[in-house]
Amino acid sequence: MKSLNIAQEARDGAVIVYVSGEVDTGTVQRLAAALQAATADALAHPSRALVVELNEATYFGSAGLNALLDSVETGGGRGVTVRVVAANAEVTRPIEVTKLDDVLRPYPTVADALASSEGL
Q: Which of 44, 54, 84, 107 has the fewest beta carbons closer than 10 A?
């Protein structure tokens, strides 16, 4: 069985979802459900911001990209800013190859994502 670990915490600046392991067609439903729940939590958070931290993802396929895009679109439609943290090639490469870096705009660290005023 493929390993996917997801954790969530709320900080002053945002709701943060930490993802580690493989995100593919076999695990993406867990990620999508976690992002949906985190978006609902971010709606109630004063910052209305959600950070998805993917630096520990060991595989990130098109299913993961679609889940992130859904989260950005859903969040944006509900007034939640979604920021992606990824400095690892397993995540940044698929984002760049599909030319989604303008939409997903990966930050290297959670601190960088929290410090950004982009999208607010």
A: 44
**Domain residue limits, the chain:** 4-113
CB atoms within 10 A of CB 62: 13
Mean pLDDT of the chain: 94
> What are the tokens at 103?
């939409």
Model pLDDT for residues 58-104, shown as the tens digit of each residue:
999 999 999 999 999 999 999 999 999 999 999 999 999 999 998 99
Q: What is the pTM of this model?
A: 0.94
> Helix, strand, coil % (nearest 5) of the chain?
45, 30, 30
Nearest residue to 107 via CA among 5, 16, 10 = 16
Which fold is adopted by the domain 4-113?
Answer: Transcription Regulator spoIIAA (3.30.750)
Please answer whether residues 95 and 65 qualify as being in contact, where contact means their C-beta atoms are separated by less than 8 angstroms.
Answer: yes
Instruction: Please give the structure tokens belonging to residue 15.
Output: 């709701």
